[in-house]
């Protein structure tokens, strides 16, 4: 029954570089539109916090600013979506797809209706770096340090072109410039959602 519910639930992807404001905007989207927020980064950090053997490996990868194996993310995501689908009016999938293959495998293996669109938060590397260094002072995250931030930016820029081209071709790309304040960015996010009939 839960898998059935998943088939009729809307999905919006939220993507952007590290520090582009994904998690920040998703919180506000949940407040306004009542969507269910699933951040792949948060799911991975929960796995790490559980102290499992897999968690240890994940920390090592995240410390290097690299992408964790596709299978791991896809499984975490799918399990969580199935569990929550019966009580959800739509999913915000934050930080996914990070590489093109993730998008393709999602479509093949997570049986949802076609995704609505991809919200892309576009920000300069300078802005992302300064936001992440700001967060580093309080976050305690293993990947919020200068060395790892550089690598995270590199990982992101290697993958973004293919993803953007794919979703543009499908007419599913909603790109927003996310340099301004949280509320100013959110005003644009709301326009994008409403423009897509959400
Ligand atoms: P994530 O958890 O996705 O980390 P992130 O890119 O930094 O985004 P986050 O949502 O946390 O931060 P935000 O920009 O909102 O990924 C971490 C790691 O997990 C990856 O490097 C990778 O190893 C792994 N991973 C995750 N998903 C994966 C996947 N699908 N496949 C493989 N591996 C995966 O906020 C950053 C800071 O900016 C905050 O301090 C915030 O307050 C501030 N900020 C936000 N908006 C602002 C604004 N408008 N103005 C000023 N400050 C702002």
Automatic annotation (TrEMBL):
Monomer. It is found in: Cytoplasm. This is adenylate kinase. It comes from the Eukaryota. It comes from Mytilus galloprovincialis (Mediterranean mussel). Catalyzes the reversible transfer of the terminal phosphate group between ATP and AMP. Plays an important role in cellular energy homeostasis and in adenine nucleotide metabolism. The chain holds residues 680 to 877 of 1080 of the full protein.
């Amino acid at each position: 029954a839960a898998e059935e519910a998943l088939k009729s639930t809307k999905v919006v992807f939220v993507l952007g570089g590290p520090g582009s404001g994904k998690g920040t905007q998703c919180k506000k989207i949940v407040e306004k539109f009542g969507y269910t927020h699933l951040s792949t980064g948060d799911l991975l950090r929960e796995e790490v916090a559980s102290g499992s053997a897999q968690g240890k490996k994940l920390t090592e990868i995240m410390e290097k600013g690299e992408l964790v194996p596709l299978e791991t993310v896809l499984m975490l995501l799918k399990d969580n979506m199935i569990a929550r689908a019966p009580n959800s009016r739509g999913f915000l999938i934050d930080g996914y797809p990070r590489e093109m293959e993730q998008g393709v495998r999602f479509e093949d293996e997570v049986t949802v209706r076609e995704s609505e669109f991809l919200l892309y938060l576009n920000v300069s590397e300078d802005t992302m770096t300064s936001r992440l260094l700001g967060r580093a002072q309080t976050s305690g995250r293993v990947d919020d340090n200068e060395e790892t931030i550089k690598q995270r930016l590199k990982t992101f820029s290697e993958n973004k072109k293919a993803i953007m081209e794919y979703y543009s071709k499908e007419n599913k790309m909603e790109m927003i410039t996310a340099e301004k304040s949280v509320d100013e960015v959110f005003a644009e996010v709301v326009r994008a959602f409403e423009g897509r009939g959400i």
